[in-house]
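Journal club prep — side note

Before the paper discussion, L.F. wants everyone to see what a predicted structure for a comparable chain looks like in C-alpha cell form. Sequence:
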Amino acid sequence: MSVHALAVRAATIGGPLARLDPRSRVLAAVALVVTIATLHRLDVLLCAVAGAGALALVSGQPLRALGHRLLHLEGFMAALLLLLPFTMPGAPLLTLGPIAASEAGVLRSLDIVLTVNGCALVVFALLAALDPVHLGQACARLGVPQRLVQTFLLTVRYGAVFRAEIRRLTESMRVRGFAPGTNRHTFRTYGNLAGMVLVRSLERAERVDEAMRCRGYSGRLPIGHAGRFGRADLLFGFAVLAAACALVGADRLL
C-alpha cells in the first residue's frame, strides 16, 4: 500500500483519538508501553490489557483490522504458552510422561502474553491510524535523530516500490515457464533474482539521491509546522499519566 493510500485511509478513520496531535499519541503510546512492560502482577496486567482494549475500541478503527493484526501475534503467543512451562524449572504443575510443566513457567508465560497483547493494543489504538509521514514528522518534532526519521520515511516510501519491482520480476519468471522446486536450477534462479533486485535498488537509490539534490536537498527533509498542543491533548496527557501512575502503584504498593 502506498503512502498516499495510507494517508487517505487514516483520514477516513474517525474516533476521538483522531483529533489529537500526533505528538500526543506518540508520547502516550511510549508512556503506556513502558508502563505495561514494567508490570509484574497478573491481576494488574489484566486491568492494563482491558484498558488497552477499551482504548482500541474507542479509537474508531475497524475491529476486523484489530483481529487480523492480533491473529498473527497470537500464533507466537500460543507457541510460548505451550513451550515455556515445560522448559522453565520450578514446582511441577502438570506432568505429561517424562516432562512436567512448572508453575513458574506458566506464570511467566501468562505474564509475557498479557504484556505483549497490552502493548500491541496500545500501539494499535494510538499509532495504527497515523500515516507514516505524520508519524515520522511527529517523531522528528519530539527530538528523534533526523537520520533515523529520514531512514524511516524513505523506507516506507520506497519499500512499496521495491515490492512492486520484485513482483514484476517474479511474474516475468512465471511467464517464461519458471516453476520453483527443490533443485539447483531453482536456487540459482532465486539467487539471480536477489542479485537483480539488489542492482536495481542501488540504481534506484542513485536516481532518488540525484533527484533530491536537484530539488535542493541539503541533508534534512522538510518537517513542516510543529503546531500546538490543544486542550484535548492536555486532558488526554493527564489521563494517560493518571492511568500509568495507577497501574504502577497497584503493581508495586497493593
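L.F.'s comment for the group: Residues 21-131+226-252 form one domain. Keep this in mind when we get to the figures.
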